[in-house]
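Field reference: sequence -> structure
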Amino acid sequence: MSNRFAGLVTTIVVWLAATALGDDDASVVRLFDGKSLDGWTREHTDRYNVRDGVIVNNGGTGWLRYNEPFKDFELHAEYRATKKGAASGIFFRATPESTTKSPHWPVRGYQLQVIEARNQFAIMGHGVAPPTFKRKAGDLRDAIRQPPNEWQTITLKVVGTHAEAALNGRTITVSDAIEQPEGCVGLRGEGGHFEWRNLKIKELSAQ
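Structure field:
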């Protein structure tokens, strides 16, 4: 396969992933209006704000929680880390209640790690049994757009006990050990500077 053809295939795959939850689909809920944090709650943090059409997180603890819970869904989000070593994540099927002690993350739920480190795209448990998962580290390295501050596209699909996460159109992590049946989605605050945009979600029926 020529480099030119391989590049074309990659472009098509990324385009399909980005348009999978199109605005013309009435079942898709746009979580972020590009102007405000309407529909969201800051949990133990004041470091989430909207600037220039994106959600900006400037480190700190706590998390940003979307108010409506979801059960089975496909979530689309775009992010970029603007500082080296930045760390964040996507919570899902999380309780709206947070721990009383720092870092004030959900009492129970799961997290897809979004971090410039070896455990990028690992799935962690909070207050629940740590879920087993398979992660393609080589595909992850190939999928990340360079330089690191380029916009990256995440698709997180959760149905029943199954979860799978893709980066820029390439499936990276799969788990069949998601026990918590329903909960909130949210963005984790931790280290560095992150920006988020184009967050939308489609509710699915269990297969």
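Note: The two ends are 36 Å apart (CA to CA).
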